[in-house]
Design brief:
Radius of gyration: 29 Å
Strand order of the largest sheet: 7-9-10-11-8-12
Distance between the termini: 76 Å
Number of helices: 17
Number of domains: 3
Shape: elongated
Bound molecules: adenosine-5'-triphosphate, magnesium ion
Number of strands: 14
Helix content: 40-55%
Mean pLDDT: 83
Low-confidence stretches: 1-23, 339-345
Structural class: alpha/beta
Length: 472
């Protein structure tokens, strides 16, 4: 079997991590790449039929037909090929699995009947599937296309695709159904996992909806990484976490540190309200191209014991396969010191907590837990964090940057406003500053004015300080 290195199929360890790095191109690019792939598959199929029946053919082996070069493509399909595929038969199998969805008529030649036996060719494999009118390929079909019908060695090699450890199966791209195929694996229909299919075809993925049975919601922010204002010490720690997200694959796979390092990363963000914990979690996802999901803890403890566990398990499973960052807000409620159980509700709560702790600990991706207090976190649990990052209230310099950023857009500031003095005089957090901006802008609008006055800002600050029980 020939190596596909020349066409972008190279050592999978050097491929980029699916889900991180550059964000995949959209559906236009996806269609172009897939179209080329289907053209290639059609040529292979034609050649395979010609070679098998001894008809004239331009090549003596389908391996001589060049596969599309995917080295510079960033679509999901190209990345899957780069990351998980090293050999021709794998790529053919994946392309064949996509064909019923992308170009079903491509497989029509396989409906040809064997005139000697007046039945379909067993060599072609294929199966009927529900309402699909076309030919549905099986692993037998893949064997036929790669010329493994008569070459037993090639045929046997193909069976490695049935192994749960095969990269295409481990990454949940090729789906193997437990059907009668247990009798003969070659009869199993070729199927691409629905999630992989939506990534491959749409270029984006369909996200599950938040519901009572799916207690997680995607966190997004219109802000950018540069808008984040942090103490340099905090930034260092955040940069380390970001580096982990970006490079953990290299660390674990290429450097083979996976024997010493567990794949997941758990970080606790703690500190006063409004200091940017939630914002940082959202931005970590935004800059690395990963989705961040916030688990709704109010839905975690439900009256229906078992249900919650099932719902949570679903979130963790989805999170693992889609490489989400999981975010738990107000985590102290969950991970605080276990209190003696009093009511029956608490007992269930503790049962769910135990389940959650286990899943958090085993999760192979990034989990961020946010809390206002550190003292409350169970010691045993604290030891399991890779990092505990304290988000202090911003100092004077950070406050000044926050104020300047806040007023960089929207209505202009009156000449009397001196943000340096405001930053020096009032100890407020980024969250409070965002609220002051809202208040000041609204006051300006209500006045019919166009510039924000010093008084608007000071009044906004007063309100914020009053909320905290402080008086300015
Ligand atoms: N360090 C920061 N840099 C830039 N903006 C910030 C920062 N901290 C807070 N903000 C602003 O305040 C808003 C609220 O902050 P955020 O929700 O991240 O606080 P939090 O630490 O999660 O608070 P809580 O503990 O109450 O959940 C942000 O959306 C952002 O507009
Ligand atoms: Mg928060």
């Amino acid at each position: 079997m020939s190596e596909l290195a020349a066409s972008g199929v190279s050592n999978r360890n050097h491929g980029s991590n699916i889900g991180t790095g550059t964000i995949p191109q959209g559906s236009g690019a996806a269609a172009r790449v897939l179209d080329a792939e289907m053209n290639w598959l059609a040529k292979l199929l034609d050649a395979a039929i010609r070679l098998y029946f001894g008809q004239p053919c331009e090549v003596d082996d389908i391996a001589r037909i060049d596969a599309p070069d995917l080295r510079d493509e960033t679509t999901w399909y190209a990345r899957i090929v780069r990351e998980h595929i090293t050999e021709l038969d794998e790529r053919v199998t994946l392309a064949l699995a996509l064909a019923p969805c992308l170009r079903p008529q491509l497989l029509d030649p396989l409906f040809a009947r064997n005139p000697n036996l007046e039945r379909a060719f067993s060599e072609f494999g294929g199966t009927a599937r529900g309402t699909h009118a076309g030919f549905w390929p099986t692993y037998e079909t893949a064997a036929f296309v790669v010329g493994a019908t008569t070459a037993l060695e090639r045929r046997i090699r193909l069976t490695r695709l049935a192994e749960p450890d095969h990269p295409l199966r481990r990454a949940r791209i090729l789906h193997l159904e437990p059907t009668e195929s247990a009798v003969n694996w070659f009869d199993a229909p070729l199927r691409v996992d629905p999630l992989a299919l939506s990534r491959i075809t749409l270029g984006v993925e369909q996200r599950p909806d938040y519901s009572s049975t799916f207690p997680a919601r995607r966190l997004t922010t219109p802000l950018e990484w540069d808008d984040l204002v942090l103490h340099s010490g905090v930034r260092d720690e955040i940069d380390e976490l970001r580096a982990w997200i970006e490079h953990s694959r290299t660390l674990l796979d290429t450097w083979q540190l996976d024997r010493h390092i567990k794949p997941g990363y758990r970080s606790l963000f703690y500190g006063p309200p409004g200091t940017g914990k939630t914002l940082t979690a959202s931005l970590l996802g935004k800059t690395t191209g990963l989705d961040v999901y916030r688990i709704d803890l109010s839905l975690v403890v439900s009256k229906f014991i078992g249900e919650t566990e099932k719902n949570l398990a679903q979130v963790f499973d989805e999170a693992e396969r889609r490489e989400w960052i999981l975010f738990f807000d107000e985590a102290d409620a969950l991970f605080g010191k276990r209190t003696a159980t009093s009511s029956s509700n608490d007992r269930y709560a503790n049962q769910e907590v135990a389940f959650l702790l286990q899943r958090v600990e085993d999760f192979p991706g990034v989990v961020i837990l946010a809390s206002n207090l550190k003292g409350n976190i169970d010691d045993a649990f604290a030891r399991r964090f890779q990092s505990m990052i304290y988000f202090p209230a911003p100092g004077q310099a950070e406050r000044l940057t926050l104020w300047r950023n806040a007023f960089s857009r929207g209505p202009r500031l009156a000449a009397e406003v001196d943000l340096e003095v405001i930053a020096a005089d009032y100890e407020v957090t980024g969250g409070a500053i965002a609220n002051v901006l809202r208040h000041a802008a609204l006051s300006t609008l209500r006045r019919g004015g166009e510039t924000i006055l010093q008084a608007d800002i000071i009044e906004g600050i007063r309100r914020e300080l009053r909320k905290d029980g402080k008086t300015p």
